[in-house]
User: Fold Lipoprotein CseA from Streptomyces actinomycinicus.
Amino acid sequence: MIAAGAALAALGLLAVAACGSGGTGARDEGPAHGSAVAGSVTSPSPSPSASERYRQVDAVALLRSDPEVSTAVKAQLKPCDGDNYKVDVKYGDLTGAAVDDVVINVVTCADWVGIASYVYRDEDGTFKNVFKSEDSPVYSEIDQGTLSVFRQYYEDGDPISSPSGDVLTPYTWKAGRFVAGKPIRNEYSNASDEGAQTAPDN
Assistant:
């Protein structure tokens, strides 16, 4: 639908604004949680603060050292303007780790099309790759603890700057891995009044 197209376009602009040599990105913080035992007079232990959970990464170095990242994507990890790399980095709680998870989007220099998306999780002080999508064009966001992955699609004759729509797939962390939810298909043009539709199962 048109609104979804505008939202994805805004994401592309956000990716450009967040580009940098290491990628500082944005943080998506969830609410703090506490628990108390009935009748207990002790206060619950405080949740880690945002500053305690946040650990900045060098996104370009992380991708280059990761064997899970394809050679094709690594070949495109070059500065676009001076020492600015087109990588968009976001921090937030997706997996329940003690340190914020890291979402990295790699986009093209010329038209900011999403090349690949990755999620890294802190395991014993080292960030491990726990999700990747290298089916371009793709872009990932953190949405209230859910990983939202946008994959644009093109019909015959669509220019690279004007895809026909996108398919949004939510992923949640379960039993040590990301599990895909029901995809939602958004059409950018010729959208009906019904708006976004659930994509059919394959």
